[in-house]
Amino acid sequence: MMAELLIIGGGLAGCEAAWAAARAGLAVELWEMRPARQTPAHETGLLAELVCSNSLRAAKITSAVGLLKDEMARLGSIVIEAARETRVPAGGAWAVDRMEFAGLITAWIQEHPRVEVVTREADRIPEARPLILATGPLTSEALAADLARLTGRDRLFFYDAIAPIIDAQSIDRSIAFEASRYEDGPGDYLNLPLTENEYNAFYDALMAADTVKRRDFESTKHFEGCLPIEVMARRGRQTLAFGPMKPVGLIDPRTNRRPFAVVQLRREDAHGTAFNMVGFQTRLTHAAQSQVFRTIPGLAGAEFPRLGSIHRNTFLEAPAVLTPALELRENPGLYVAGQLSGVEGYVESAAMGILAGLNAARRVREIPPVVPPVTTALGALITHLTTPIKNFQPSNVNFGLFPPLAKKTPKKMRGQAYADRAQKDLEAWMAENDLHPEAGDGQ
Questions:
Q1: Distance CA 377, CA 57 (A)
Q2: Do the Cβ atoms of 353 and 15 come closer than 8 Å?
Q3: I need a surface site. Which of 32, 38, 290, 368 has the fewest CB within 10 A?
């Protein structure tokens, strides 16, 4: 097979880009360096491995991320289809069994007749065009250096953090209770309640714990949407109680009262054999994590299949270098997708892969690129990536990125109003650009 498109990176964005381009008729070569070379965060050689959380966040279309997932599904997203097949209970959130999810996407990609998966590391940006870079936040140092050469070294930034996973059998069920916040769903989370004294003891232990020493490039920058828990805690004793440990909407059945604080645990797999500590991404040393997190009621005997860790997160200063088609302005035919493009989150990263794949395919066919309407979730993200702003930071999709609604709408109805407008405009855009994917896998 003579490849018409080269994609570097087999994460969510790379797989979406390969799937979209292959469905459009292109022969695709997809490079992934794992398992020959692993990263500090990955554990397998599977494509589309989720390394931080197993949650794709809110499911309802009245949320911005729920709307984004709906738009992706309409464009034939492989990630959304795999997520439907591997979903696990998580209340109002959409979580997946991460191993089954990655395994399914790997099988679908490898079986596609127009996609060739090659185990290969890129230590510099190949000359081939069109080319999609979808190497993610863990882009290798050599490739990141070459990208810095093309874009300007001041346009690459670095962040971190992964949350621990707990063996389900090591959780004290006499303390933990099943419930979703505000009874949103059947109660798919395990909740560990803390009294004020217990919260203060945990806070003091957290503040005294050792953290992994920072490297120079990590000295000042943090992404507000994924702060290490100890960094949040330094902002004030009550910060965590109003953040990831907020007890609002939860009642401890032992007391029939709302606890002072709570730690929520979310299922990692369909069988509930492991749980993720929600919001507990951390830079603590492994020894400190084992000690500090066991001070939380219900976790005295906790066993951790995976402790939290740090990793480099690379992304571009998108407004300075990217076009709305996700193409580097000064390097035509070179597209950037996923978190490397400047979005934050699994779903957002995958969504940029779809758009990069579509536009790379259109370039090969000598068709003008497509840019989604600004009123859609996809278009709102593109607007964020291409609007000049001082101190650019990655962003999850949110309704604050959308144009205001034409009519004043009650707060409870705004989500639906945004969704109605977006769906109408997306369908018109897809019809205008002949983007309706065929039924099935497009093979």
A1: 15
A2: yes
A3: 368
Q: Are residues 114 and 254 in the same domain?
A: no
**Angle formed by the axes of helices 98-111 and 78-85, to 10°?**
130
Integer CA distances (angstroms), 30 to 14, 17, 120, 134, 135, in order: 8, 9, 9, 10, 11
β partners of residue 381: none
Q: How many domains does the chain have?
A: 2
| Residue that terminates a domain, selected from 293, 328, 361 | 293
User: Which is nearest to 375 in space by CA: 393, 399, 351, 411?
Assistant: 399
- Retrieve residue 332's tokens: 């035509």
User: Tens digits of per-residue pLDDT, 176-218?
Assistant: 999 987 765 557 799 999 999 999 999 999 999 998 765 443 4
**Whole-angstrom distance, CA of residue 262 vs CA of residue 191:** 6
* Non-local CB neighbours of 217 within 8 Å, separated by 6+ positions: 158, 312
Domain ranges, residue 100: 5-158+312-432
Q: What is the pTM of this model?
A: 0.73
Tokens of 101: 């999810």
Phi, psi of 361 (to 5 degrees): -65, -40
Record the tokens describing residue 292, joined without a space. Answer: 């500090």
Please check whether residue 203 is in contact with residue 192, taking contact to mean a CB–CB distance below 8 angstroms.
no
Same domain for 344 and 266: no
Domain co-membership, 260 together with 146: no
First to last CA, the chain: 15
The string of pLDDT tens digits covering residues 124-144 is: 999 999 999 999 877 877 888
